[in-house]
Amino acid sequence: MNIQSPELDITKTVFENGLTLLVLEKRDVPLVTSTIWYKVGSAYERKGQTGISHFLEHLMFKGTSTYAKGVIDAMTAAYGGYNNAGTIFDYTMYYFNFSSDRWQIALEIEADRMQHCLFDPAEFEAERNVVLEELKHQLDSPWGRLSIQMEATLYPQEHPYHHPVIGWREDLERITPAEVNAYYQTYYTPNNATIVIVGDVETQAAIEQVYQHFAHIPANPNLPVLQACAPKQAAEQRFVLHEDTGLKRVQIGYHAAALVDEENYALEVIDYLLSHGKTSCLYQRLIENEQLVSFIDTCNHPRRFPGAFYIFAALRPGVESERVEQAIDEELKRLQRELLPLEELDKVKNAIAADFIFEKETAAGLAHSLGEYETLSTYKYIYLYPEHLARITSEDIMRTAQTYLTETNRTVGWSLPEHPEQERPESLTAEEEDFLPPTLEIAHYTPEIPDRQGKMFQAKPPSPETPYLFTRDTQRYRHYRWTLDNGLIVLFLEQHTLPVLSMEAFVDAGQQYETDEQAGLAVLTGQLLDEGTTRRSSFEIAQTIEAVGGSLETQSRGVSVQVLSKDIELAMDLLADVLIHPVFDAAQLEKKRQRILTSLEGDEDNLALVAYNLFREMVYGRHPYHRPYKGYKHTLQQLSRADVVAYFDVYFRPNRTILAIVGDATPEFTYDAVQRCFGDWEARILPEPPGFTIPRPQGCVQKHLERAREQVHVYLGHPGVTRLNPDFYTLFTLDHILGVGAGFTDRISRKLRDEQGLAYSVSANISLSAEVEPGVFSAYIGTSPKNVQRAIEGFLEEIHTIRTTPVSQEELALAQNYITGSYVFNFETSNQLARYLINMERYHLGDQFIWNFPHLIQSVTIEAIQQAAQRYLDPENYYIASVGKGQIR
Fold first, then answer.
1. What residue stretches are annotated with the Peptidase M16 C-terminal domain (predicted)?
2. Cα–Cα nearest to 12, from 357, 383, 386
3. Is residue 5 predicted with pLDDT exceeding 80?
4. Is the pLDDT of residue 779 over 90?
5. What distance in Å separates the CA atoms of residue 517 and residue 504, rounded to the nearest whole number?
6. Do residues 824 and 850 touch, judged by C-beta distance below 8 A?
7. Could you tell me which of 299, 396, 503, 519 has the fewest CB atoms within 10 Å of its CB?
8. Per-residue pLDDT, 414
9. What is the maximum alpha-carbon separation in the chain?
10. What are the φ and ψ backbone dihedral angles of 8, each rounded to 5 degrees?
């Protein structure tokens, strides 16, 4: 398989002060991603200052001499964009996404932040608390603790990768503003930075804009040079962490290659071989055949200096640790002594080639790849990567496995239950083990903020003209709608930007159609769809899609497929096969049941999810949504093949299904293929949907589960609304003012995170969970036990205020500008467009919705916000669900 180099015309400019600029024009969607990369991360930190790079990243949003605290986020929202940042070992990066008619504001902000950041002592202490809460969140996760200990053991104490990116707690508690400022002055300089701009821009104009904003900033002639050598390990290293958990988990780390090393390409192939897809050797051995683990994954992590290759696994209850290690070791030894068959190597290269194309769908994905490559080595790696991978041979795979994946080069870390009897005999799915209910990591908001002239910066009301750029090409999002004789609704959107095709079949099925005794039936049925059909075995299904580098995912409400467009016929045939002809083999059903049970056990270690499930149980009463969507251990154990078949026969029917197809195909070809694959699917008379009432709480109703962890996770709220509620767009706007504002701009985040430093994650909303069935209004926070009462009081105060006091015109304009200005980001990938088409059909939004939505948001008034808050938010009658240490008063 020849992996084609991407057709990317990248322009590199280096200015006199050392600043590097990369520009890539991508004109298919009217948006721009602008990123800046500093060559400084946790690897550059001295002893006693661990975590300072990440701490500084947080503080970069706290204000400059030009932009007061909160201005950066407010300006971003006012211009309809969003921003964020990230820190790892070798770099710190910041990014902005804007529509292409306003992206230049990102350069203004970044040029100012490079020179004029302030470290106010009070703000410094508030953000220190936030970072410490982030650390506690990581320490509350068994995988988080394993990861921290793995790096500390794999790399010796003097090595720059030894300590965690977030830092050691004692250092975070001690670091001073003066130390952070000195670090900032040293490393945040143009000759230590790379700017990457990708999107709907003109290259020369971008170069001129960067020159205007950055050319005058002086370089640092005394920039420190980081030196590190490859760590030498003479023998295997081991450690064990005893946790309050019911599952055994293992992480195995091997010293590996740097990004620039030739062996890194072979390690990428080995990564795919071991765990990419159901046909991979570790999946087949440990999950499918021997059923030793519920989850297996690998990760090649190249860095500036030699990085690491990791293997992760979560064991099924009762499985001995030694059996898992032995099975993994035997598969690695097989790679070391047997040449890989050419068809296996070609399959992996197909997968890598397809992923390489899929990643080109977004400007942000391209900007991230280019920035990381240039920071660690050279942006030309984006060309070198596919060229080198295409040349990899089976001999290269064997030689690289013999070099790196050896016993003496590895560190093995185990997370085990504190007491052997603590391991629970049953437990849900590996892929979903780390699931978190929707929360937004948000920080600060100020409705009125000084601008550069010292005046008050105020978000202006949106323009009466459409404030986004879809009007530039009104035909781009026009789609076809067909209804087959059997009732199947087909939505097709033609897109030829890339040779990519996405298909999603949404079935009106799911948890709401289960009885209490059948809890988990919908998930079990959905996960069995690709485990064998009348035409293909489970392995043959996986082999078919993986051979062309595609992906197929099944869930309780249908099936989705993504392939290169040349494989549309194969993909549609496969989608129809798993959607219409599953056999629900008894042996596969039992395997899947056991994996779901194990994954339920893993969910018990995710306290935010435990609290969310407890909250839904309280809110929904007897409605089916009161149950965890995966069900309970006792109900899953009782489900039979007959239950699955009966459920499938009723609900998986064409007259309950919407099929969305987006990508590089013609309508004529697509219609014929759909008719051929789905035309004979038999319709059935639809059952009447069950009706349920959801009771409102009376007063404050509380439930608490005691767990000895660093944080308490709290949900506060009550029943919400449906997506079809006539006030939905008012509530959606209200949410952005109250609890899910752009970046860090909403009231609750400003008060509880930014001003009081109570949490790293905090949010509140009523619209995001709304579907055909009512959602919930929920306010969430994960915080230290001592802060829980203050957090609850803060939630209730803000809910009361938005009901009793009109929001300001500036707040409303800020929310409207953000929602309408950022709307374009929902339509960048074929997967996003397929989901949009399904929602448009499902909620009867009309084929003009993509153009109508901004006007619906612009029409929201201050009076409507207050009336909706009074009608739908209730600070007197609510539920509180909490999980953690210490009973809530």
1. 175-351, 639-817
2. 383
3. no
4. yes
5. 30
6. no
7. 299
8. 98
9. 76
10. -120, 125
Residue 153 CB neighbour total at 10 angstroms:
16
Q: Look at the chain and count its residues.
A: 889
Per-residue pLDDT, 439: 27
pLDDT digits (tens, 9 = 90+) for 82-124: 899 999 999 999 999 999 989 999 999 999 999 999 999 999 9
Alpha-carbon gap, residue 149 to 146, rounded angstroms? 5
What CATH superfamily classification does 482-678 receive?
Answer: Metalloenzyme, LuxS/M16 peptidase-like (3.30.830.10)
Dihedral angle over CA of 601, 606, 611, 614, nearest 10: -20
The gap between the terminal CA atoms of the chain, to the nearest Å, is 64
pLDDT of residue 418: 82
Per-residue pLDDT tens over the stretch 20-52: 999 999 998 899 999 999 999 999 999 999 999
- Report the run of H or E that residue 763 belongs to, with start and end: strand 759-765
SS3 (DSSP) at 401 = helix
Domain 700-884: CATH superfamily is: Metalloenzyme, LuxS/M16 peptidase-like (3.30.830.10)
SS3 (DSSP) at 816 = helix
Residue-by-residue DSSP string for 612-658: HHHHHHHHHTTSGGGS-TT--HHHHHH--HHHHHHHHHHH--GGGEE
| Contact of 747 with 807, CB cutoff 8 Å | no
Backbone angles phi, psi at 848, to 5 degrees: -100, 5
**Hey, what CATH topology would domain 10-214 get?**
Cytochrome Bc1 Complex; Chain A, domain 1 (3.30.830)
Cα–Cα distance, 793 to 790 (Å, whole number)? 5
What φ, ψ does residue 421 adopt, rounded to 5°? -70, -10
Q: Does residue 117 contact residue 59 with C-beta atoms inside 8 Å?
A: yes
The residue-averaged pLDDT of 150-166 equals 95
CA angle, 605 as apex, 245 and 415 as ends, to 5°? 45
* Superfamily classification of domain 237-362+374-425: Metalloenzyme, LuxS/M16 peptidase-like (3.30.830.10)
**pLDDT > 90 fraction of the chain, expressed in percent and rounded:** 81
Tokens representing 829? Answer: 């990938």
Per CATH, 482-678 and 700-884 having the same topology is answered yes
**Nearest in space to 92 (alpha carbons), one of 284, 371, 320:** 371
The torsion angles phi and psi of 521, rounded to 5 degrees, stand at: -65, -40
- Secondary structure (DSSP) of 512-557: GG--GGGTTHHHHHHHHTTSBBSS-BHHHHHHHHHHTT-EEEEETT
Q: Name which of 841, 848, 849 is nearest 656 in CA terms.
A: 841
The three-point CA angle 351-353-359 to 5° equals: 100
Cα 355 from Cα 703, distance rounded (Å) = 45
CB 3 within 8 A of CB 64: no
- Residue ranges per structural domain of the chain: 10-214, 237-362+374-425, 482-678, 700-884
Position 777: which residue type?
F
Helix, strand, coil percentages, rounded to 5, for the chain: 45, 20, 35
Residue 700 CB-half CA count within 13 A: 12
Query: What is residue 455's predicted lDDT score, i.e. its pLDDT?
Result: 27
> What φ, ψ does residue 510 adopt, rounded to 5°?
120, -170
